[in-house]
Fold this protein.
Amino acid sequence: MRSKIATLLSITSLCCSIMISSQVYAGDTIKIGSFLAVTGGASFLGDPELKTLQMYIDKLNKEGGVLGKKIELVHYDTGGNPKKAVNFIKRLVKKDRVDVIIGGSTSGTTLAVAPLVKKFKIPMISLAGSIKIVEPTQKWLFKVPHTDRMAAAKVFADMQKRGFTKVALISGSGGFDKSGRTQSLALASKYNIQIVADESYGNKDTDMTAQLTKIRASDAQAILNFGFGKAPAIVTKNIKQLGIKLPIYQSHGVASKKYIELSGDAANGVRLPAAAIVVANELADNDIQKKVTMAYKTQYEAKYDQVSSFGAHAYDALMITLKAIKQAKGVDKKALRTAIERTQNYVGAGGIFNMSADDHMGLKEDSFKLLEIVDGRWQIVN
Amino acid sequence: MSDYILQFLISGITVGSIYALVGLGFTIIYNASDVVNFAQGEFVMIGAMSAVSFSIAGIPLIIAIIMAMMVTVLVGFALNQFAIKPAKGASVVTTIIITIGASIFLRGAALLIWGKDFYSLPAFSGEQPIHIAGATILPQNLWVMGISVLLVSAVLWFFKYTLLGKAILACSCNHTAAQMVGINVGKMMLLSYGLSAMLGALAGVLIVPITFSSYDAGIMLGLKGFSAAILGGIGNPIGAIVGGLLLGILESLGAGFISSGYKDAIAFAIILFVLFVRPSGLLGHEHQERV
Amino acid sequence: MSSSLLKISNLSSSYGPVNVLNKLSIEVHAGELVALVGANGAGKTTLLRCISGVQKITSGHIYFSDKEISHLSTDQIVSCGISQSPEGRQVFAPLSVADNLLLGAYSLRKKTLKTKEQQTHAIENIYQLFPILKEKQAHSAGTLSGGQQQMLAIGRALMAQPSLLLLDEPSMGLAPLLVKEIFSIIKKLNEQGTTVLLVEQNAKMALSIANRAYVIETGQVTLSGNADELLGNKAIQRAYLGHSL
Ligand SMILES: Nc1ncnc2c1ncn2[C@@H]1O[C@H](COP(=O)(O)OP(=O)(O)O)[C@@H](O)[C@H]1O
Ligand SMILES: [Mg+2]
């Protein structure tokens, strides 16, 4: 009996000493927590995001770290599941004691943890698109990607320029798609545009001709598709199949070479808003983002496959965090938060960031480029 | 309105043909071994993905397709040898769990090989739409329908007119009796897994230019093929075909006339209704004689 | 040994822990009609299943034409020339009568029944034996009456052109008139040269057509001898013949 108690005691003290030592260790490093959708349906977001974070943190540590301290990345894979995200936030804050959080990949996971972020008073920069993350502004919550509203605005502005007043909308079933649809419906009238058809499809659907047949029968002058993954490519091909000659607009959700590859010839003439990183090569040499996008693209593609705007968001979030840490001269959470909020004129891969107390994203609409696919290649529309 | 319907039917029949082929794959394995093979969708995915890979490697399309079929058939053989056969005599539920496990394994392997990207093949004969009576159809839709008809006829012919086909059927009605007339039941199992894998691979190759494929594309197709087989009456090859076409058309009409969001729900509601009225499916035997 | 077509020595077999056959030995000579009688549950079916290779044996030997066959697979055993009409008929219910017969010759598909003509001819021979099957040839086997299914099962076994025919309870569940008919056909087959091992609970009928017989109880041979002698045996009469015909 006595020996049992002794063993228990020694185990407990061992645990304590491990915890203490890890805390001491924590003092020597800056801990960045992260929860991304590296697997599952949204893995195309989380995968390049995590790769980017790891790659740049490794690079930084080799160069000596920040403020003389090494950076440690503590990451958990949510698989896109909001419930998991909530658990991971608790673990990141309470157990891993991270100083700042980057993530999550999706709007769902981000919004699910927002109340906890507020409660724990820890600065977090989200990599998700929804406008709800920063509107209304929440004290500890930031985001770097463009919003779907900005994408819709960019598209509608171009439609207005081309004189279209009647537009057919088709969108997918995911959070991104639905939010994009809502923003498009809300924004259209501002550009004198009437939405004459509002169709939807499941993101795993393999045929959208039924919905497009209805659009064909409407008096739309252009079609806007809000979606990502393979579905927009199927929409594009189906439009061609049905012999619909209307101009096609897509969202920034398809700004990848894969979309062109899957759509083939049908992609020619399609217009879409996209971050500069997608067209880094095509940017004019005097473009303010040319340097940063080319640098990121070269770094990333030397190690992995094609860059995406998603990885670029992680890049921007990390850079903003590091700048803020230097600004705050440490990782005091309050000071760090204030420093992030004061980000000014940061030229990132996604645009030029000017944050403020009312704007926790800091991007303007012009940080999107409008692209047209010509002969299977991106071309910037001026 | 009528050109609406025609357009919906074209989509429905195209997708339905694929469901039918997948359903037929379910039926063949079920008939030979009483196993509901939930890795059937993975056969479709593997067929499509390997055809894409071979084609990207510069191999002419037709040879790439044949090689993809061979790869998939080998996977089918392996599934039988390493997953199903060792569990001989296991309950239906156990074998279902085994095939689900196998499907997860195959998806994982596909993820390692091909990553998470989507892939496509060029359409077999161009993408110039053909206009008929206000509706349009792609040459690839015709390929899907035409080859499906050929495949289905070949399978039906195989089971009705060849000794080998009849021997597989005999295994399904009575293992012991089949053994007693000198049929090597193990060989027939292997054969039916290979046949079913080949059908799956062809379905994948036919549809990939239209719907694209990724490592997880088999889940949905497997589920739809299974629904087709259940709807038509599991074990009945003609039932699987009727079930597949019906499911495809229902989905297409549902998406067209009601809402795409509900199209799966509509299709499943109808399946449930059919099974409620006729538990053995549309063309299933009322009393299945199984020993 | 050389004169016996089938020789079984010290055969044991079990379902799980339960031993069903216990060091059983029997012999069948070429040209004989041997009956195997015994009460329900004695192990007769198990014995036939062991011979056909669908039931695992735990020890002992089975020789066919002086060749050990106990480790062969069922399809190999059929190819050696042993075919069986199993207990309960076990026809392929959804398949047609003609297809059932055709499948019966599966083991000969690369040998004597390769061509369509050969197959048709063999099936015609069965139809001569059982004319009713010809009438029903296009019907699915499941729709036949019990007696017709029994004829089909025997016909299917005959299609393999066996040198040893195993029959498991061919009279089970049949009307007396039909039983007589089936037994006279078995007798005829034997006279035409097929060696037959006949398992029956209907001991009197079986003994009346057999040359020799074995009586089995709980997996062991308790009596054996010429069929006529056994038919006259008082003990047998009391035990097995009392409630038969
Ligand atoms: N599949 C089985 N599993 C377990 N026990 C069995 C099985 N089949 C038969 N038996 C048992 O084996 C014994 C012999 O059965 P069987 O060979 O069918 O006898 P018979 O044909 O002489 O009536 C019986 O006690 C029976 O209960
Ligand atoms: Mg018996």
